[in-house]
Amino acid sequence: MARKVPVRRWMQGLNRAMPVVLDTVGVILLSGSAILAFGLAAGVAALGVGCIVLNWRFYSGT
To answer: Which controlled-vocabulary keywords does the entry list (predicted)?
Structure first.
């Protein structure tokens, strides 16, 4: 029984981090596809907008 407690804590931490990880991967894939489809400037712009949205969504405090 006592061995399951650290696993539960680890899984709770993973559950809290997973939305940030998934959204970050989405931003990376979006910017990569924008680079391939429209060029480097569009990819950099998509990455910048994605970072701003991630910061607003996860670190705004509301």
So the answer is: Membrane, Transmembrane, Transmembrane helix
